[in-house]
Amino acid sequence: MGGPWRLLRALRLRLLGPEKQHVGSDQFGNKYYKIPKHQTWAGQTIPEKRLIEAVNQEEYKYEAGDLPTEWEAWIRKRRKDPPTMEEILKNEIYREEIKLKIKDASEKDSLLQTKESERLVAEPVQTQIKGHASSPSYGKNEPSPDPTSTAKTFHPGSWIPPDSSSHNK
Question: What does pTM read for this prediction?
C-alpha cells in the first residue's frame, strides 16, 4: 500500500513542486517561505529550503537594507527560527539609538580635534628687520662682527679687540 502513495506523492511533487509553508512577512511586504526537508521518488533526501517572495520582482532594483537583517539571517540559515515582528522593531530602535550615539561621539571628537589643533599650532615668531637684504650697511651704524655678503660683494666683519683692563683681572 505504501508504494502507490509514494508514487502519487512523487507525481504531485514533480508536477506541482514541493509544498511551500508560509513562515512570515516583513514591514516591506516581502513574504518568506520554507520548503521542509523531503525525499524524492528515487529516495534522495532534499534538505530544507528557505525562499523569499519579494514585493519588487526585479532583483536589480534592490538595495542594501531592503531586507531586514533578521530575515536575511534566517534565509541564509544563520538562525534556526524566523524572526518576530517585535524582535525586528526592537532591533530597529536599537540601531537608531546607536546612530545617534555615533553622531554625538563624532561631534565631540571633531570639537576635541579643533581644540587640540589650536593648542598645537605655534605662535608666529616676531622678527626684527635690520635693513634691506640687498644693502648690507642699511640701518647699521657700527661695524658688524659678522661678515656679510650680497651677490658679488663681500664685506668682512670687523674684529674689535677685547678690553685689556677686563682681560688682566
Answer: 0.53
